[in-house]
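tool=predict chain=A
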Amino acid sequence: MLDRYFPAGIAATLHLYMQRTIPVMFDLKCPINYELWHHMLDSNKNQALDNIKERFALEVSDDYIKKALGKKWRDHKSTLKKLYFKKDISLEEKLRNVPSRMLRYQWKDAARFWNSKKGEKVSSGQKVGRLQLFEITHRKKDGSPMTSEAGEIMEKLKEKKTEYEAIASTDSSVNLENIDNRKSEMCYQYSSSIQG
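tool=predict ok
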């Protein structure tokens, strides 16, 4: 899987690093109790990087190796979640079922996060709809619309959504998913008018 993103040499090296050479070091230096790879301390990433460089002669940049390492960390975390957390047992049993080579506190932190509402939301894999994407890409950091036209479109979309939801609440034959489809058409027409 990693071969699609990185040259075979780096993929094979990191596979060895994770699976055979020093798996305990990986669990200690890149623990799974961080929500995201970007939240992990740079010192942890640098220690893992140094361990790789001590054992393997790679002709790629440190940033490249760190990106590959981040991918393997996410894969490792996902595998642990599938094997140990997604069992049909209570949270207490999951917390006691610590994977081998894993420090208990790291496992407990990760399991508690996965069990939280925030963790469930992150792992739900919900896709961003075109309407949401339009709003995200057409707002400034302070939340205001980028342009007056974008603001007008957003207002129209809110009005249409309110109208449609009112109809849907009284008429069970109305499909709420059509709200996003109609809004997407408006967003598309707006973006086409700007580009054209």
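Residues 1-6 have pLDDT under 50 and may be disordered. The chain has ten helices and no strands.
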